[in-house]
Amino acid sequence: MNKLFAAAAALGLLSAPQIASASPSRAPQTVNISVNADGLDLSRPSDVRTLRNRIADAAAEACDPADRMIVTPMPDYACRRAAVASAEPMVQELAQAAQRGAMARRR
Asked: Is the entire prediction scored with pTM above 0.90?
């Protein structure tokens, strides 16, 4: 059962819609980024923090691609915040489900 939950958590985070804007003159576009939750026990706060860090790293990659043709690349912090915020409800849902599963196993 625990392995099944871990697999469901990994699949649940596989495709999180994010908003990335390549330039201010272009309309925002929706992209999918993959975030791996393998090896994390989301009933533990430290592992939830690790997952959030992975999401933030993926958002930075999506919002600030290295292939931009800009002389002085500036991080798009608004895009990063929007991307992380869009994934947060899923993180909370998975963490709560992991807590419920951990409590059920303790009984």
From this structure: no
